[in-house]
Design a protein that fits this description.
By secondary structure, this protein is mainly alpha-helical. It has eleven helices and no strands. Helix content is 78%, strand content 0%.
């Protein structure tokens, strides 16, 4: 028997809940770091609501703190989030019949965590009449938890003295995200190349070394996957 829209929605919420246990701490850390980077509370919260992409938000906050030009920040965010184009391509066969409103909403809610459960659902049962409600439920659950955890981080960050120096938490956060994902040779080589390229291009003006090292690492990663 085919599931109704509400059943699909709450199934998406339920399947996303275990992932939120790992997402919430990062939202809180982002809120704290955003304030330490010089953003005010409204700007920090607005970034979570508008950009809604953890890795891009962490990177943007750090670049803002170092006085990086706006154009470089925008390009860096684009490069960091290129993976979403791949997510969209793999979901397109299942969502192509949806109207423009649904596509716009789901594209906004598309994240690593929402994609992980949604693509599995589509692969298992195909594009049923209400499967997009599952996507919506998973994405909305993540969006809500991200906004709340950001707000909590902002509140906590406002109580933390600047003398504590929380800058070290940013690289630790990325290490915690990246290391568990390195499960094959291509990933390990790509991470190593990215690290080496970042050191080589560190002295480039306007923080362009970050973009250069990301492009080099992406190229190497694609080459390794083909090989």
């Amino acid at each position: 028997m085919e599931k109704t829209a509400s059943q699909q929605f709450f199934s998406g919420v339920r399947d996303e809940l275990p992932i939120l246990l790992g997402v919430i701490p990062f939202g809180m850390i982002y809120g704290i770091l955003a304030l330490s980077a010089g953003l005010d509370s409204l700007q920090a919260q607005a970034m979570s609501a508008i950009i809604f992409a953890g890795s891009a938000q962490f990177m943007t906050a750090q670049l803002i703190k170092t006085g990086t030009p706006a154009l470089v920040i925008i390009i860096t965010g684009f490069v960091v989030n290129l993976r979403h184009a791949l997510y969209s391509a793999s979901l397109a066969p299942y969502t192509r019949k949806l109207n423009a409103g649904w596509k716009a909403l789901l594209s906004y809610l598309l994240t690593d965590e929402a994609y992980a459960v949604t693509i599995t659902r589509y692969q298992n049962e195909g594009a049923k009449a209400f499967t997009h409600w599952y996507f919506f439920g998973a994405g909305l659950a993540l969006w809500t938890s991200w906004q709340i955890s950001t707000a909590v981080g902002i509140f906590l960050g406002a109580q933390v003295p600047e003398s504590w120096g929380l800058d070290f938490t940013l690289p630790l956060t990325f290490i915690a995200l990246v290391v568990p994902a390195l499960k094959d040779r291509a990933g390990i080589v790509t991470a190593a190349v990215a690290s080496l390229a970042a050191l080589i291009f560190f002295g480039m003006p306007y923080k362009l070394g970050l973009i250069a090292s990301a492009l080099v690492a992406i190229s190497v990663g694609l080459w390794m996957e083909r090989k």
